[in-house]
Amino acid sequence: MSSKRTIAVTVNGTRYERKDVEVRLTLADFLRHELGLTGTHLGCEHGVCGACTILLDGKSARSCLLLAVQADGHKILTIEGIAPSADKMHPLQEAFRDNHGLQCGFCTPGMLTTLIEFLRDNPDPTEQEVRIAISGNLCRCTGYQGIVAAALDAAKRMRAAP
Amino acid sequence: MSATGIGAAVRRKEDLRFITGKGQYTDDISRPGETRAVFLRSPHAHAKIKRVDTKAAAAMPGVIAVLTGADLAQDKIGNLICGWMIHSKDGSPMKMAPHPAIAANKVCCVGDQVAVVIAETLAEGKDAAEKIKVDYEVLPAVVDAAKAQSAPAIHESAPKNTIYQWHLGDAKAVDAAIKSAKHVTRLDIVNNRLVPNAMEPRVAIAEYDSGTDNLTLWNTTQNPHVARLVISAFVGMAPEHKLRVIAPDVGGGFGSKIFIYPEEVVCLWAARLVGRPVKWTSDRSEAFVADAHGRDHITHAEMAFGEGGKITAIKVKTIANLGAYMSTFSSSVPTYLYATLLSGQYDIPAIYCEVDAVYTNTAPVDAYRGAGRPEATFVVERLVEVGAREEGMDPAELRRKNFIKTFPHQTPVIMNYDAGDYGASLKKALDLADVKGFDKRKRESERAGKLRGLGYSSYIEACGIAPSQAVGSLGCGVGLWESAEVRVNPTGSVEVLTGSHSHGQGHETTFAQLVSERLSIPIENVSVVHGDTDKVQFGMGTYGSRSGAVGMSAVVKALDKVEAKAKKVAAYMMEAAEGDIVFKDGKFTVAGTDKSVAWGDVTLNAYIAHKFAGSQLEPGLKEGAFYDPTNFTFPAGCHICEVEIDPETGNTEIVGWTAVDDFGTVVNPMIVEGQVHGGVAQGIGQALLESAIYNAEGQLVSGSFMDYTMPRAENLPSLKVDTTMTKCPSNPLGIKGCGEAGAIAAPAAVVNAITDAIGSEDLAMPATPPAVWAAIRKAAKMQKAA
Predict the structure, then answer these.
(1) What is the pLDDT of residue B783?
(2) Which terminus of chain A is more exposed, N or C, with fewer CB under 10 A?
């Protein structure tokens, strides 16, 4: 019924060696409960809401639909690791605060990770492109308007200071 | 206005932890020795439980206990209750059926708790739950609320599945007005059932300390003290002072986290039984069936018009589906939060409303953002719009003619509107939406083969709920005041302890703005504490857009007392008469002199107490207050929706949205605008996308995010949001509340716009592309036949 494997992952620049995990453990539960990185949230556990989105080798992925064993040997970035340093925030984080891009904050980690990838690939998006980019992420609080404004504002900030 | 005071768009303090992943939501908390609870839930909507065999499950690896409804009953754990008594027309009390936290004899909806496994890990708990054998005798399910009263009774105590048959208003006056009307508009309306779906699923963690006999519950709740009171006084889990309820960061509520749910009761009970902490985290599939749903009304409504479009009466008959059990405040939603708003913004001489509340084999229904007021607004604003169309009048003009123009205004349905200017919000909305240019835009759409429509919603709501005596006389089991304590520290920084609870609204910022302005201290020097019954005095929590109007009013009251005491301290410091002390810009001055002491000097002196004797003045600077509102507040406004529809696909695109709201005093315009955005998004969701659908067997077929359509960024427009302002005269800050307005206003505006575009009123929510497409086809066929 249950069996374990040993994995090694790099999360937010920290290398975790020889972690014994149950094969059925999701990556989300591994991050939250084994590594204590509770900034990654679970909103649906069926891959629809996007709250658990992390970056796996730089690409956005649903950590609720990945098993921890699938992350073996890979690099993961979570909400806890997106700020460039302890006293400096990522432009997206700043823009989210300045544009009221969050209310309860539960979907925010997934929004930020999704948008980091999106703005890297599309640094000068239109409003409609932003709306489509975050359409895999559900937010029940904001009606998305503040999030869209934050993404466009962040893109501007990142273009000005790449 | 100071840079961080009332009216300033201050950036939110709480954001710093949320954007860095440092929020502390309930599921982020782990307790040493924690076990996991997994519920076995009924797969049937209605069935007798003949036998529950837990033997095989109990023998599974990692299982600590398997508990059933029989165990719960044996331990005399009380039932869950509904806290608002409604009496039927004949004077009989509502029929509240027993609601055990785990079903013992029968299950009444899919998702009903049948047993719980307490296990070392979640996976082991799930494995074991699969081994529980339950013998069910499946009974026919009552699903359709319209047929519930002729179906076999679900609960013995509620014949004909009828909870109450309630009414409000003057039936005779209404019938007379309808009889003598120049025109009567009649509509059949279904207000679709919704699933609240806060993004954070519900969580409960219970811990028992056998040394002190104390129980602690970490819980995703909007009102920790109310949860503690009900779990203590009604469920009988523990004396109130032996139960601590903590609501840490909560990821959205929208009403669904007001209620006291079975799972938190079971976790508390189990934690004491097994002697270890017990944690339950809902997954989304559970949330769909185990969280209280919203809306679900079937209504026939009539509006009578006299000469010149004057509304003379409204008559409404509603069947409200309350689901399988009566949730905590379910009874009040289709009664005192609904029928009392049927006057809308209009001067209507006669109103009568009848409501039959019924049981069905579906999830319980209770308050969801707006709670009763969206349903009322939908009825009134659809009647007004359709009435205008039938009379050949401009819908804006018909509204203007009927607006209440003088205040206070007593409606025929209890409410006494204290202030408003409905014409002002309509006028501003008409300008912002460029209604004058609509005909031109419509012609352009026609040239592109599209249909274009415009819909209004001039909504009103009653918020801040509410004066305790008033709600008590209407059957509410609790008072609806709010509490605050202002603790000033020796160094002059301040902690505000509020009975309100923030689950996304930004209280840590807005409450601090109030204190920053009043005391002229930096906003960084103010902390807001909430959500812990051990820290905060009893409070009523957050719902009904009440935290500003009621919660902040309590803070104002406490600040008044703080200032009065601080003036006494300053008087001793400056050897002046207390009456001569003036507090302004953070300084205490002896009037008419240049003698002054700063805020920080006074706060320090209040605590070192060197300048006065204990017999003259108590040391310290900490004051509390309870504020009971003197009236409901009445936010109101006008939303205008413009749609473009592709008749080939039935797809509706919202091409314009204008919201002009009168919320009274606005504490933080950035936050208020965000509340409007979120509310409108939920209202558009109801109108276009969302619906909880049960099949004939009582299975929730829209039971996941794959089937239940939540609004996404690409479904929603950018809104034009503005305000008008009449101060609320009923509270010290003039606040009316803003949390629910969007969800109340939006559905009627959308449906009015779509029906305007397609030329047919025969359209139910959600107006999905197939529904709109079919309505267009049906209207065309009828036109041809005519």
Answers:
(1) 87
(2) C
- Render pLDDT for A60-116 as a digit per residue (tens, 0 to 9): 999 999 999 999 999 999 999 999 998 999 999 999 999 999 999 999 999 999 999
Q: Please state the pTM of the whole predicted model.
A: 0.97
pLDDT (tens digit per residue) in B673-684? 999 999 999 999
CA atoms within 13 A on the CB side of B72: 30
The CATH number for A44's domain is 3.10.20.30
Q: What's the pLDDT tens digit per position in B565-581?
A: 999 999 999 999 999 99
Mutate to test the interface with B, among A30, A31, A48, A140 (most CBs of B within 10 A): A140
Instruction: Tell me which of A81, A109, A143 is where a domain ends.
Output: A81
Which CATH number fits the domain that encloses residue A138?
1.10.150.120
Instruction: Give the best residue of A25, A40, A44 to mutate against chain B (max B CB count within 10 A).
Output: A44
**Strand positions, DSSP E, B572-678:** 581-584, 587-590, 596-598, 622-627, 636-646, 651-662
Domain range for A16 is: 4-81
Q: Which two tokens stand for residue B356?
A: 């039959």
Q: Is B564 on the interface with A (CB under 8 A)?
A: no
Residue B1 has what pLDDT? 66
Alpha carbons B698 and B11: distance in angstroms, whole number: 46
ipTM of the complex, rounded to two decimals: 0.98
Dist CA B473 CA B253 (whole Å):
28
Residue A86 lies in a domain: no
The whole-angstrom distance between residue B581's C-alpha and the CA centroid of its chain comes to 44
* Final residue before a domain boundary, out of A31, A52, A81: A81
> Is B245 an interface residue toward A (CB < 8 Å)?
no
Look up residue B204 and give its amino acid: A
Q: What rounded mean pLDDT belongs to chain B? A: 97
In chain B, which residue's Cα lies nearest the Cα of A83?
B20
Distance, CA of B514 to chain centre: 24
Q: Are residues A100 and A76 in the same domain?
A: no
* Cβ–Cβ below 8 Å for A140 and B15: no
Contact A96 B678 (CB under 8 A): no
Is position A43 within any domain?
Answer: yes
Q: In CATH, what number does B31-139+200-251+257-290 get?
A: 3.90.1170.50
Shortest CA distance to B272 belongs to which of B101, B58, B77? Answer: B77
A95 with A76, same domain: the answer is: no
Q: pLDDT grade, residue A2 (50/70/90)?
A: low
Q: In chain B, which residues fall in CATH 3.30.365.10?
A: 297-466+631-785, 481-627
Say yes or no for a CB contact (<8 Å) between A49 and B705.
Answer: yes
B749 touches A at CB < 8 Å: no
Q: Is the dihedral of CA B152, B154, B159, B160 positive or negative?
A: negative
Residue at B453: amino acid letter: G
Nearest residue of B to residue A144, measured between CA atoms: B713
Closest-CA residue of A relative to B716 is A143
The total of structural domains in chain A comes to 2
Question: B207: which strand partners?
Answer: B216
Domain B297-466+631-785, CATH 3.30.365.10 — does that match?
yes
Instruction: Give the residue-averaged pLDDT of B79-104.
Output: 98
My answer on whether A117 and A155 are in the same domain is yes
Query: Which residues on chain B are in Cβ contact (under 8 Å) with A49?
Result: 199, 284, 705
B481-627: CATH architecture: 2-Layer Sandwich (3.30)
Tell whether B274 lies on the interface with A, counting CB pairs under 8 A: no
Q: What is the mean pLDDT of residues A138-162?
A: 96
Q: In Å, what is the CA distance from A134 to each residue of B300, B672, B690?
A: 40, 23, 19
- Nearest by Cα to B227 from B34, B102, B83: B83
